[in-house]
Write a structure and sequence with these properties.
- With 351 residues, this protein is an alpha/beta fold.
- It has two domains: 78 residues, no CATH class; 215 residues, von Willebrand factor, type A domain (Rossmann fold).
- It is built from ten helices and 14 strands.
- The strands form three sheets. The chain has a six-stranded mixed beta sheet with strand order 7-6-5-8-9-10, sandwiched between helices. The protein has a four-stranded antiparallel beta sheet with strand order 4-11-1-13, with helices on one face.
- Helix 3 links the parallel strand 5 and strand 6.
- Helix 3 packs parallel to helix 10 and helix 7 packs across helix 9.
- The longest helix has 21 residues.
- The chain is globular, with a radius of gyration of 26 Å.
- It starts with a helix and ends with a strand.
Length: 351
């Protein structure tokens, strides 16, 4: 019965004279519908011109100062004072990614690595959201952002693997996941803590080709310009855009001074890899922590957690309205009390 009804209804055609009235009725109905796609409350706006800074402040003894307010800070870009758009105190929670190197170079000390990472979780603030990504020949998310420390600890326990090191691919994934953390109408404070020797497989192959004709260590180091690398610069640009601070924990296996039988090419490769880790820290306002002994890992992780908990976050729109001019813009932060020292990223390329 129902099928026959729709069969008859399907052959009904409006007359030619009725078409203008139907068209008018259609327009009236459409104009009365709510424009949900244009509702500002349902739209996530990302202002690419906003510059976000994570700032650490210490006293003359090097002790963190965590009791400052928005009015204590003055920001200059290229020597021009900038109006501060928003401010977060040191108590505001972070979203951070824990990157774990599961390549072949870490096989011999996995238990110490995991214990150190667990200690890092214990040192975080309760509302900090943590995700875990492991990398070797493949990059894999072990757990998404969560405040449930037992779930995150279990993800660390499951970290395994061997083979190549795709570190910069892992950094790109971490930044992509952090970009999704920006809530509606607000930004999250963000950081990446990366345990690695820095010897990315793709970069290592490219560096080997550049230094292949070197006869001395100095020639090999000179042949490789660590900063002229598209993967590194893509990571730095995205970190700048989001205001992400990166803390590399450099494993001793990536230290050129520890090579048993170094040759110029290998020395050049290792030196460039460590230089790039330094750039990741310096350009994002983080800190490179060099692990000299494996039993230092847990302490260094705890120090990074303490450093994160002492950071202020502020943002500003460049006063001259400039966006994406491709040039380097220097940042300087001053604190109202002259004896205090502020540390943040030195500037950014407005790509």
């Amino acid at each position: 019965m129902m099928n026959s009804y729709f069969s008859r209804a399907a052959i009904v055609r409006p007359t030619r004279s009725a078409l203008p009235y139907l068209a008018l009725l259609f327009l009236l109905i459409c104009s009365s519908l709510p424009a949900t796609a244009q509702d500002p409350d349902d739209t996530i706006r990302t202002d690419t011109a906003l510059v976000q800074l994570n700032i650490g402040v210490v006293d003359p003894r090097g002790q963190a100062v965590t009791s400052l307010s928005r009015n204590d800070f003055t920001v200059y870009e290229d020597g021009v004072k900038q109006p501060i758009s928003y401010f977060e105190p040191t108590s505001a929670p972070f979203s951070l990614v824990l990157l774990l190197d599961m390549s072949g170079s870490t096989l011999t000390f996995r238990p110490q690595l995991k214990q150190a990472a667990w200690r890092f979780l214990d040192a975080l603030a309760p509302e900090d959201r943590v995700a875990v990504i492991q990398f070797n020949a493949k990059v894999k998310t072990l757990s998404g952002f969560s405040t449930k420390r037992k779930d995150t600890a279990y993800a660390i326990e499951r970290a395994e693997g061997a083979g190549e090191t795709h570190f910069y691919e892992a950094l790109k994934l971490a930044l992509s996941e952090l970009a999704k953390e920006d809530g509606k109408g607000r930004r999250r404070r963000k950081a990446i803590v990366a345990l690695t020797d820095g010897l990315d497989t793709d970069m290592r192959n490219a560096d080997r080709a550049l230094a292949s004709k070197a006869q001395t260590d100095a020639e090999a180091v000179a042949a490789i310009d660590p900063s002229k690398n598209s993967a590194l610069n893509q990571v730095l640009t995205e970190a700048d855009k989001q205001g992400v601070t990166i803390y590399p924990l450099a494993l001793p296996s990536g230290d050129a001074k520890r090579l048993p039988l170094p040759d110029p090419v290998i020395t050049g490769i290792y030196t460039a890899a460590r230089s790039r880790l330094q750039s990741l820290a310096d350009r994002t306002g983080g800190r490179l922590n060099e692990i000299q002994r494996l039993d230092q890992m847990a302490r260094l992780y705890a120090e990074v957690a303490a450093d994160l908990r002492s950071l202020y976050t502020l943002g500003y729109q460049p006063a001259n309205g400039r966006t994406r001019d491709g040039k380097w813009h220097e940042i300087r932060v001053e604190v109202g009390q002259p004896s205090l020292i502020a540390r943040t990223k030195p500037g950014y390329y407005a790509r």
